[in-house]
Write a structure and sequence with these properties.
The chain has 304 residues and is of the alpha/beta class. It has three domains: 127 residues, Alpha-Beta Complex (inorganic pyrophosphatase (n-terminal core)), CATH 3.90.1640.10; 43 residues, no CATH class; 120 residues, Diaminopimelate Epimerase, Chain A, domain 1. It is 31% helix and 28% strand. The chain has a six-stranded mixed beta sheet. Strand 14 and strand 15 form a beta hairpin. The relative contact order is 0.11.
């Protein structure tokens, strides 16, 4: 616990924190980093996530967190210019961007540049799932979080443990916060929810299908879901989301939660969804006597 107390001191003192997950797109590292990112954002104004390439399933989060996900500048091209391909080339003293347009026209007036974050330097780097320090940013000090026993212990503080990354992150947060915000099982379930996220761009709805093994692997139960719902609604600021999970009591069925900021979407669900329903604010709790979760997901998304 001594290392956790030292890590707490560094986090408390740092005004600007950078989080650096394993860059090979390992979902467990990225999800644990996201969970840590959103937890620290509740305490700190400046927390940045440094990643070269966002996993495709999380691309929709870029628009919501562009100022916090390692980017400080934005080049925009007006919609009237249809871009079909983008390629970039780095040379010793410049970066060249190549565009292929559908209509063959790209004018200077259609391109704009915008600063989307300040450039104040990070005062602390937290790495997750990174085994060695050869590719990490030149930021010190470093809190090195990993569950790989052959980690090179390159941090000023090394939190290395043979367990899941969310478990180590939870221990850190438990030390950091005076009153813990949730249980370990609920926190691990939230990481699983992040892992299972699916974004329907056309309908602007995030859906999550949880299976029995997801609860088993996180030692959790449906009663642990409220923490995940709160995170999706507040920190991830998702306007529409659906969570489905199996219910195996006397008769197999599917339980779920549909949340939306759009009253029309809520009314459509209430009108079309068969089964037991209960509305709570902007959410609908329901149970359907059907155990094909994928089919139910598609039907609900089609309703709205």
């Amino acid at each position: 616990m001594k290392n956790y107390q030292k890590a707490k001191k560094l986090i408390k003192e740092a005004k600007n924190i950078a989080i650096f997950p394993c860059q090979d797109l390992k979902i467990d590292s990225f999800c644990a980093s996201l969970a840590l990112f959103y937890s620290l954002k509740e305490l700190k104004e400046k927390v940045n996530l440094i990643i070269e390439k966002i996993p495709e399933k999380f691309q929709f989060l870029i628009e919501k967190e562009s100022s916090s996900i390692s980017f400080d500048s934005l080049i925009s091209i007006k919609e009237e210019t249809k871009i079909s391909q983008v390629f970039y080339e780095k040379t010793d003293n410049r970066l060249n961007l190549y565009f292929k347009t559908k209509n063959g026209v790209l004018k200077k007036d259609n391109i704009s540049f915008k600063q989307i974050a300040d450039n104040s330097p990070s005062e602390l780097l937290i790495t997750l799932g990174v085994k060695q320090n050869k590719d990490i940013p030149q930021i010190t000090p470093v809190i090195n979080i990993d569950n790989q026993i052959n980690n090179e212990n390159f941090g000023e503080i090394n939190l290395i443990k043979n367990c899941s990354l969310p478990e180590i992150v939870f221990e850190l947060l438990e030390t950091l916060l005076e009153k813990i915000f949730t249980s370990l099982t609920a926190f691990q379930l939230f990481n699983k929810v992040l892992d299972k996220i699916n974004f329907n761009k056309e309908k602007n709805i995030v859906s999550v299908i949880l299976k029995e093994e997801d609860f088993f692997e996180t030692n959790s139960k449906p009663a642990d879901l409220p923490y995940s719902l709160k995170q999706l609604k507040t920190n991830l600021a998702l306007g529409n989301f659906l969570i489905l999970y199996p219910n195996h009591h006397s008769t197999p069925s599917t339980k779920g939660v549909f949340y939306s900021e759009d009253e029309n979407k809520l009314l459509k669900i209430l009108e079309n969804l068969k089964g037991v329903q209960a509305r709570k604010g902007k959410g609908i709790l329901f149970e359907i006597k059907e155990n094909n979760l994928e089919k139910i997901k598609n039907e609900i998304i089609n309703f709205v």
